[in-house]
Amino acid sequence: MSLIELTNLEVTIGHKTILKSIDLTIEEGTVTAFVGPSGSGKTTLLRTLNLLQIPTSGRLRVGDTEVIGGKINKRDIRQIRQIRNHSTMVFQQFHLFKNYTVLQNVVQPLVLSGRFSRKEAEIIAHESLEKVGLAAFENQYPVTLSGGQQQRVAIAFKPKIILFDEPTSALDPEMVDGVLQVIST
Question: Can you list the alpha helix ranges (DSSP code H) found in 23-116?
């Protein structure tokens, strides 16, 4: 069974159709990239997968939960997002909590998901930060980190689904390789 499936998905914003007749299946354990010019709908598609943008019509399934565009209510959004507690979205701009340390930025989503106690989340966070080469920075605040380091914090807890919106666009060429290596592991 696929992890994400879109069938005849359409997204209209105002009077403009941004996505039309999108059929897509993404299997667990795969990496899928959307490539295209600026304004072609890549970010809208990612936002729709996250239900930050509501589809106008079509079907969206994540795991075992399915919603129908044009008929999505708050309950549907909550249900999809509960599944998505196993996921994260990394935007072009780094959305880390500035008043949380690196460690707290990784711990907090794990605790808020309801899947882990604070103690369990701290153990997972320490291990994850070690894997992405940031263990030495866990007590620092995001403002003290480079762009590449901030990207690695944002993906440190290795959720089942990670949606990246141009994850290397703001990075130095030297940092791009490191971030791509973290993404592929």
Answer: 42-49, 74-83, 102-112
